[in-house]
Design goal:
single chain, 4% strand, transmembrane helix, two-stranded antiparallel ribbon, mainly alpha, membrane
Amino acid sequence: MLNMVFLTNSWLTSFNQPGLCITVAMLLHYFLLAAFTWMCLESVHFYLALVKVFNAYVPKYILKCCIAGWGIPAIVIAFVLIINKDFYGNGSLSEIHPYSNFCWIQDNTVFYISVVAYFFLIFLMNTAMFITVLLQIHSVKTRTQKTSRFWKR
């Protein structure tokens, strides 16, 4: 959906409908945040599969993942819309970017908080999960090598 909204964004912007532009910018923002959130959920699943192999049962796991994957971005979008729906709009209406025919976030502060900071938090979470998984794999490998040396003796 992120790709579909991105590819149709310029075409939909050409209709010069402010409501349509706000909707397209909001959908683009939502699906971008949803992609980041699902990436984070993949790292959590990676952690559960490789580190917490046993005793990793989570009741209604898929339902919880879906609620997080689709709900957290919706909450962020709702906050942006509640604060000011005019944060979304057409960049060509601004004097800074007169030729950009694209609906997106118009306020730099909102962009940095709701996209860049969001991505940075997801990136930190993924990095922490990745390092944890690597350390777990390394410790399993070390234990296996020690036991194989013991049995060879």
